[in-house]
Each structure stands twice: as structure tokens, then as C-alpha cells.
Automatic annotation (TrEMBL):
Top-level taxon: Bacteria
Any coiled-coil regions, as ranges: none
Name of this chain's protein: Protein LplC
Localization in the cell: Cell membrane
Species of the source: Paenibacillus apis
Membrane disposition: Multi-pass membrane protein
Gene name of the encoded protein: lplC_1
Keywords: Cell membrane, Membrane, Transmembrane, Transmembrane helix, Transport
ABC transmembrane type-1 domain sequence ranges: 74-278
Sequence similarity: Belongs to the binding-protein-dependent transport system permease family.
UniProt entry tagged with the keyword Membrane: yes
Length: 293
């Protein structure tokens, strides 16, 4: 039986400690935001809240879930994620499959590959992009949030490299049985590429859900803002003359800080739910998809 050397044990111990400390540093801000969201306005304002709620209350969540702007932004983000995921995945798979072939199977393969890679090195710029979207009549529509990022080149390269690592014998056997490229792609390549597809899915879902800047520049009406764009602009300004006594009572239990914390955590919650289901595929897909160039 092979014994682990002392230097190896020290190295592993150091890595475990470093990664544990890093994980704690990353998760503590989220715990603090969660604690503030469940705390009273006075405790949050006084700075008493650290990692545990003080004067526990759910008033901020009740108020956030009754705000039309928040619910509308949540709906817009949900629609964006759904459409963006479908568009991104279909285009990524359709491009990665032919680029994964050898030069003899796809003429000018390197030319096509560089056609996409060059877009990672050079960008048209914000103003030309805005003018293009405006000329196409996409401003203030959900497609202004989906189509500009329809071809995620990094994801294409990741999936292309994963496809190239799959056994060629399975593909050749399918061709002998009369299968065409579409049948091979959807019946063989995709089922065998679950780790890579799960990794790309996570990138796409989180990318669309967390994106906020494009909503600010492509949406003229705040009612069309995705959730993250709305969260960038929220400021509570209460006019006593236009709110009811019940609303004033609710507002007395919350503050700008607790209200924003509640909305931030509600916005992060869907990603926190999805990630554990894809995590087991994530590292495998990321590593295997980056072996070949």
C-alpha cells in the first residue's frame, strides 16, 4: 500500500485550510445580508446585526413581495433566463459539433474557429452595439437582453473540446447504422456530454440572471427592467400623503437597508436552488472541456 509522504500531507492540509478559509470569506457576506433582511430597522441602522438576525421580523420580505416593480422585474428576469437559455444552448451545441470535427471532415475548420475566437479578443464597443440594437427595433423588448449574447464563444470552445474527447468509434458505428449528423448529435453526443452541458447551463443561467447593465441601457421604461437592473436603481422614498396608515406601519418596521437586503437575497435564491443540482457535473465538465485546443 502506497503511503502518503509528509510533504504531501502538509500540502493537502494547507490546501484544505486555504479553501475552507476562502469558502468562509465568500459565504459570510451572504449570511450577513440574510441576517440584516430578517432584522428590525433599528437594529440594522445601529449596526448590531452581524451573522444572526436581531429582533427577528419578516416585514422586509412581506413588503418586497408586494412591490409591483420587484415582481415585474422578477418576471422579466425569468422570461429572459428561459429564452436566453434556449437560444444560447441551441446555438452553442450547433456550433460546437461541426467545429469538433477534424479538418478532413470540415474544410476550413480553423478559419471558422478563428471567426468566433476573434470576437473574444475584439469587441465592437458599447455605442455601435447600442446603435445596432436600436436600428433593429429591439429597444425596450426582451430580445435586446437575449440576442446580443446569443453566441457565448467561451461556452462554444468548452463544449467543442468536450466533443473532441468523445470516442470516435461510437460515432462511426452510428454512421454505419445509417444515422446522420443530426441523429448523432442529439442521440449520442448530447447524452454523453451531460457534464459539459451542465457546466454550460450553469454559466448561462447565472449569466442571464445576474446581468443588469444591459437592462439599464437597452430598456427605456423601468417597467421592462430585469430584476438585477431594478435592484441597481431602488431607492425608498416614502411620501406620507400618498400611503395608507397600514403601509406607514409596515414602513416603520423596515429600513432601506433591510428592504434592499431582502430583495438581494430573494434575487440570489433561485441560483442557490439550481446550483446544487448541477454542481456534481460542474467540475468534471469544466476540466474535461478544457483539455484540448
Amino acid at each position: 500500500m502506497h503511503k502518503t509522504s509528509i510533504s504531501r500531507k502538509l500540502f493537502l492540509t494547507f490546501n484544505y485550510i486555504l479553501l475552507t478559509v476562502t469558502a468562509i470569506v465568500c459565504i459570510l457576506p451572504l449570511i450577513n445580508v440574510l441576517a440584516i433582511s430578517f432584522s428590525s430597522s433599528s437594529a440594522a441602522a445601529a449596526g448590531y446585526v452581524k451573522l444572526w438576525p436581531v429582533d427577528f421580523t419578516v416585514a422586509s420580505y412581506k413588503y418586497a413581495l408586494t412591490k409591483n416593480e420587484f415582481l415585474t422585474g422578477f418576471f422579466v428576469s425569468g422570461k429572459r433566463v428561459l429564452l436566453g437559455y434556449i437560444v444560447n444552448m441551441l446555438i452553442t451545441i450547433s456550433i460546437a459539433y461541426p467545429l469538433s470535427k477534424e479538418k478532413k471532415a470540415l474544410g476550413m475548420r480553423n478559419v471558422y474557429a478563428w471567426f468566433f475566437i476573434i470576437t473574444m479578443l475584439f469587441h465592437g464597443g458599447l455605442i455601435p452595439t447600442y446603435m445596432t440594437i436600436k436600428s433593429l427595433g429591439l429597444l425596450d423588448t426582451i430580445w435586446a437582453l437575449v440576442l446580443p449574447g446569443a453566441v457565448p464563444v467561451f461556452n462554444v470552445i468548452l463544449l467543442m473540446n468536450f466533443f473532441r474527447n468523445l470516442p470516435k468509434e461510437i460515432e462511426e458505428a452510428a454512421y454505419i447504422d445509417g444515422a446522420g449528423h443530426w441523429r448523432v448529435l442529439w442521440s449520442i453526443y448530447c447524452p454523453l456530454s451531460k457534464p459539459a452541458l451542465a457546466t454550460i447551463s450553469l454559466f448561462v443561467l447565472v449569466g442571464h440572471w445576474n446581468s443588469w447593465f444591459d437592462g439599464l441601457i437597452y430598456m427605456n421604461s423601468p417597467s421592462n427592467y430585469p430584476l438585477q437592473s431594478y435592484l441597481q436603481t431602488i431607492i425608498i422614498e416614502v411620501d406620507p400623503s400618498i400611503v395608507s396608515s397600514n403601509e406607514l406601519l409596515d414602513m416603520s418596521e423596515i429600513s432601506n437597508r433591510t428592504f434592499k437586503s431582502a430583495q438581494v437575497f430573494l434575487a440570489a435564491f433561485p441560483v442557490l436552488i439550481i446550483y446544487p443540482f448541477l454542481q456534481k457535473y460542474f467540475m468534471k465538465g469544466l476540466v474535461l472541456g478544457s483539455v484540448k485546443g
